[in-house]
Each structure stands twice: as structure tokens, then as C-alpha cells.
Design a protein that fits this description.
alpha/beta; 2-enoyl-CoA Hydratase, Chain A, domain 1; Lyase 2-enoyl-coa Hydratase, Chain  A, domain 2; six-stranded mixed beta sheet; four-stranded mixed beta sheet
Length: 261
């Protein structure tokens, strides 16, 4: 992989760390890197040992968006193809079986912000800057930003950020709910790993169903969301993990490690 690094971390080797690794280009995403991300996610999906992912960037940027050198040659047809290609990768992230933590180490702009939006949880360095400056290039967000950003921060605030193209500080992003936690720059990966360890400790099947219930439930009306929740809730009562956890609770002992079945 030329544009990505992948490492396995954690006490039980249950955390995958994906690093966007084009620091000379502020981790801008070109077609090659997007395809690498798709292939890597497909590979990790099959590794049941991995129970949480962390996405971060090398150098002073998380991701500065699309590679303008490549995008400047884009046509109407190739623009649509690139948009759908990137959007499908982000959709894979959003519906990935395990939670994904975005560890935003620096600039998260344009497509970089869209990558962050596809993560389940966002932790930002206090020195990070986030924004949606596509309007300054006479285009609009094309990887899901016009849809995910309003769902996260509200329609009016999302329009303000996209209409003005302003970059905002990590503190402001935290204030409006765009990021969930702030970290000192030197503590960012440590904090992300601590959170990932907490997540990876729990039953992977229950975690998968929990993510499905919230993610899919937010895309439909309340009654349909409640039906999704009830169906997933009921299925977990047929698992070994549920039996062991509840027996351990009643017997006042620590449950055995969750097996995902």
C-alpha cells in the first residue's frame, strides 16, 4: 500500500489502526488511495479478531480532501465516477461491522472532513482544524458531506460551514458536536487507543448489532427504527455471549472473554 499504513494494536491485538500516509500531500486522497482503502476494509472485515478500528493521518494533516492535481483533470463523467467510488468507501466505513474512531490529528478539510464524518466517533487534537471549503474551488462536497454533516450538527450550522467554506478550530468543532472529544496533540493516539480498548472489550456481535440499530435507525422513521432495534435485541438472546454474561452477572463473577457467538 502506497497511501496507507495498517497496524494491529491493543492488549489482545483486537484494534486495527489505519493511517493515511501521504504526508507530502497532506494525506489528500487520490483514486489509488481510495481503492487501497476499499481493499483494506474488505480485508479487515474478514478478520474477526479486529473489534475496533482507528483512522488517523501521518504528519500534520488527518486528510486534506481530494488530490487537486488529479481532480483538476476530472470531467463530468469521471467526476461522477470518483464521487460514487469515494462515497461507497465511506458507506462501507459507516456500515463496517466494528466501530471506527476517527483520531483527527490535524487538518480535516473537504473530503477529509467527509472521511471523519463516516467514523462512528471523532476525537480531535486541540491543534486540528476542520472545514468544508469545496465552495472555494467552485464545487460542492461529493463524498457524502452534504448529507452527513447536517445530520450531525444540524441543517443551519452545516449550511453555514459549507456556504462560507470556513475552517473551524477543534474547540469550535467540539462545541457544535462535530467532534466528541478533544486531546492534547501528543496524547491523541493514546486517548484513541484507550477508547478503542474499552469498545473492543465488549461482545463483538452485540457491538455489531448496536451499530446497525443506531446507524440504520437514524435513516428511517421512529417506528421502523424501533422494529429494527427489537429484532436485533431478540436475536442476541440466542448467543453464547449473552448466556455467559448474564450467568456471570447472577453469579457475581467476571464473565469469560466474549467470543462473538
Amino acid at each position: 500500500m502506497n497511501g496507507l499504513k495498517y497496524e494491529i494494536a491493543g492488549k489482545n491485538k483486537s484494534i486495527g489502526v489505519i493511517t493515511l500516509n501521504r504526508p507530502q500531500a497532506l494525506n489528500a486522497m487520490n483514486t489509488e488511495t481510495v481503492n487501497e482503502m476499499r481493499e483494506l476494509l474488505d480485508k479487515i472485515e474478514k478478520d474477526e479478531q479486529i473489534r475496533c478500528l482507528i483512522l488517523t493521518g501521518e504528519g500534520r494533516a488527518f486528510c486534506s480532501g481530494g488530490d487537486i492535481n488529479e481532480e483538476s483533470q476530472t470531467t463530468v463523467i469521471t467526476g461522477y465516477q470518483f464521487s460514487r467510488n469515494c462515497a461507497q468507501v465511506l458507506d462501507t466505513m459507516e456500515h463496517f461491522r466494528a466501530p471506527i474512531i476517527g483520531a483527527i490529528n490535524g487538518y480535516a478539510l473537504g473530503g477529509g472532513l467527509e472521511f471523519a464524518l463516516a467514523c462512528d466517533i471523532r476525537i480531535a487534537s486541540k491543534k486540528a482544524f476542520l472545514g468544508s471549503p469545496e465552495i472555494s474551488l467552485a464545487v460542492i462536497p461529493g463524498w457524502g458531506g452534504t448529507q452527513r454533516l447536517p445530520r450531525l450538527v444540524g441543517v443551519s450550522k452545516a449550511k453555514q460551514l459549507m456556504f462560507t467554506g470556513d475552517k473551524i478550530s477543534a474547540e469550535e468543532a467540539y462545541r457544535i458536536g462535530l467532534v466528541d472529544e478533544l486531546s492534547e496533540p501528543e496524547e491523541l493516539m493514546k486517548d484513541a487507543l484507550i477508547m478503542a480498548e474499552k469498545i473492543a472489550h465488549w461482545g463483538p456481535l452485540a457491538m455489531k448489532y448496536l451499530k446497525i440499530a443506531v446507524t440504520d435507525g437514524m435513516e428511517c422513521d421512529l417506528q421502523r427504527g424501533l422494529q429494527i432495534e427489537a429484532a436485533l435485541f431478540a436475536q442476541l438472546y440466542g448467543t453464547e455471549d449473552q448466556q455467559e454474561a448474564m450467568h456471570a452477572f447472577l453469579e457475581k463473577r467476571t464473565p469469560k472473554p466474549f467470543l462473538g457467538r
